[in-house]
Amino acid sequence: MKNNLNFILTGVTGVLGSHIFYELMLKLHENQYEGNIVLLLRSKPGKTYMERFDELFTQKLLPNYLKQVNVERIRHNNVTLIDLDLNNISEVEMNILQKGDKYHLIHCAASVNLGNSPSAYEEIKKTNYNGTLQLLEALKPYIFKLTYISTAFAYRPMEYNDPQGYGKVEYRNHYEKFKAQVEEELFKVCAGYGLQCQVLRPSIICGRLIDYPHHVIGRFLVFYLFGAFFYRIKETPYNNLPLRITINHGSGLNIVAVDYAAKAIVRALNTDIRELNIVSSKYVPNTYTIPALLKEVGWHNFEFTDMVPTDMNAAEKLYYRTVGPQLNDYLLAPDYEFDVEVLMELMKDIEEPDIYMHFRDLCRYAVEQKFNNILA
After folding, report:
1. Which residues contact 318 (CB under 8 A, 6 or more apart)?
2. What would the mean pLDDT of 331-345 be, rounded to a whole number?
3. Which of 46, 123, 153, 178 has the fewest CB atoms within 10 Å, counting from its CB?
């Protein structure tokens, strides 16, 4: 039996959005190639939106399961591209959409600036907050449901495993704060428009661990940026200077594989799940992740500290001026406690990847790729 599969997807050239797109392509294949996917993506300086779309089909990025799918048929018959910048939505060219059945909007596009500077605030507010609300306003005549891809770290209320007594953790950056604010606004606005609203919240994304080839990821972000920093200064005078890194020894990172997260998102689309945290049931300790990543990079001269050092050497000054401000709050925060019962039921036939077991391999893949992004 054929299903009605009409989707609008933003953020398709992102780490998670690309894998959501791959999963939707598989659904179209299983639906006898009936359905439509409208992709809203923007051109960038030196690269058109069509060129960015083409990058999604780079052979070393595609999961092997798409070998059973007529990808070219979907590209030409089932996918519509619209050049759209969330920062400049004047009039969305919806006249090219299919008439009749309305669309399910999956809004995955966002700026992932984890900084706390005034410029980061303005960027996040403009793109993630204003851009989202403007997008919904422009698309409301054409959609019946919105699925908003937020972040697990915007979730409230939450409990913390906090044996060190750090106390309740506030939002660590403008990215988390505005994600939470957008969630609250969207439920109200969608109710006023008569639209269904769903919020799905993945945690930190890593490379593939279910679908082959494993470890692949389109862009190296968050903890990968930590490794990339040291990889790129190895051939400089900073190489292997002593480095003191601030961490919370009792906590870790909640990391979820990109393919596991994408499968959970696509499975949740046609359910009555209103909110879902797409997270790992176990944390990877900071005392393991950081040494594992640094050893794969080849940086061995480091130690952990509870406080940002005051008598910094040149490498430490560079670290705390660049990567440190964005990652420090993640390395110092106590663990978030998430209820994964609904997620485990949704994914009961797919084994949750063991991030701890595969973390060194994920790091090794990034080093082999020289931390060069596949997706622009």
Report:
1. 233, 238
2. 88
3. 46
